[in-house]
Write a structure and sequence with these properties.
8 helices, globular, mainly alpha
Length: 218
């Protein structure tokens, strides 16, 4: 993961060249969609496809699908959300994976490829395309998450699932273990998400303030 991040930063000028730019963007999108299709094909073949676990209502899956559109269309509006949900959500998933399979199982490899790409994609748009998150991006992200919560909660109710861990905490150790019992940890999680967004935004805060001052002086 870190090698890819260094590569994106080190070769951002090369990746702006149209041939490289198109190739890398579409390769990322292909891997996103390919990993998701591959996952469902494996679940179906293994006989474990289930409406309570296999629908695309996990936050990282939603972010993955949005990132696929973002990386192809260069949508800034989607970037504003995926920058936070992708980087924060995927980092948490990588550090505390909710996974029952070890390397070299397909599910293990697919899981980490998808989540690493979910960090790379918004960084590509940041360093190569020059996109930047703003305070308004944090606001839009929180609105997006609060729209998702009742929708996903309804899906959980109908399917008996635990998408976005809104029904109960994951079986494996996670950040949620420090946020109180259900359902109160959902409120704590919102606060943690907001704090996380501001932490990830810190490197861009000074620049946004500088740009704002310049616009006032012009």
């Amino acid at each position: 993961m870190l090698v890819g991040i260094v590569f994106l930063y080190q070769y951002q000028d090369v990746l702006r060249q149209i041939e490289w730019n198109i190739t890398v963007r579409y390769a990322i999108a292909f891997l996103f969609i390919g990993s998701e299709i591959g996952l469902h094909m494996w679940e179906w073949k293994a006989g474990i496809f289930d409406l309570g676990t296999s629908l695309p209502f996990e936050l990282c899956t939603i972010s993955l699908l949005l990132a696929s559109i973002m990386i192809v269309t260069k949508s800034y509006r989607i970037y504003e959300i995926v920058f936070f949900t992708g980087i924060i959500g995927a980092s948490q998933a990588i550090l505390t994976p909710n996974l029952q399979y070890a390397f070299p199982h397909f599910r293990f490899i697919e899981y980490f490829i998808a989540h690493v790409l979910l960090i790379w994609a918004p960084l590509f748009m940041t360093w190569v395309e020059g996109y930047r998150p703003t305070v308004q991006s944090i606001k839009r992200t929180m609105i997006f998450l609060n729209i998702l919560i009742p929708i996903v909660s309804f899906v959980n109710y109908k399917t008996g699932g635990n998408y976005m861990f809104l029904a109960h905490k994951p079986e494996t150790a996670s950040l949620l273990d420090m946020l109180g019992p259900h359902p109160y940890y959902i409120i704590s999680l919102e606060l943690a998400a907001l704090i996380g967004c501001f932490i990830v935004y810190i490197p861009f805060a000074k620049r946004e303030k500088h740009v704002h001052k310049e616009s006032l002086g012009s």
